[in-house]
Write a structure and sequence with these properties.
Blueprint (H helix, E strand, L loop, with lengths): L2 H9 L9 H13 L1 E2 L4 H17 L5 E6 L2 E7 L5 H17 L3 H10 L4 H4 L13 E6 L3 E9 L3 H23 L1
Parallel strand pairs: 1-4
Antiparallel strand pairs: 2-3, 2-5, 4-5
Helix pairs in contact: 2-5, 3-7
Amino acid sequence: MTEDRRTNEDRRPGADRRTNGDEVEVLEAQEARLVLPRFTYEDAWTLGTLLVGMAREREAPVAIDIRRGPQQLFHCALPGSSADNDAWIDRKRRVVERYGSSSFLVGARFRAKGTTFEASSRLDPDRYAAHGGSFPVAVEGVGVIGSVTVSGLPQAEDHALVVEALERLLGSHTAASG
């Protein structure tokens, strides 16, 4: 499934598309909670293979990208994904790099204001997409140092997959240090 189709599905009547401040608060709380004590090359590998395993269990046709700064540390395309997913990854990742927040949160903030990212950001929609699936990699005492992005599912599911994987990675860091 391409991201274009996902957008149409998310806009169908009855789709869960909260546009109030509650959604923004939930997404902001996720970002505040998902701050890692460190993010090494090994952590990128662990996070990437965790995402691959989760996606395979769910038979999710996704592409996965993990970056620290401009360096791509992990990339995987699973069966059913396509080059379109890589293009969506780039567009969603650019939103994280520009705003320092998840692509889903950025889109939610625009919706909470009664508009859309595409209509109000003044950014080229061929280069930026505030659709769920890209999340900032933040390190304690440092801030945002990179991103982890998934593309191939409906945007809320892309976002949720990344959040679940980051929660597991954070849990493994906490268990190792405690």
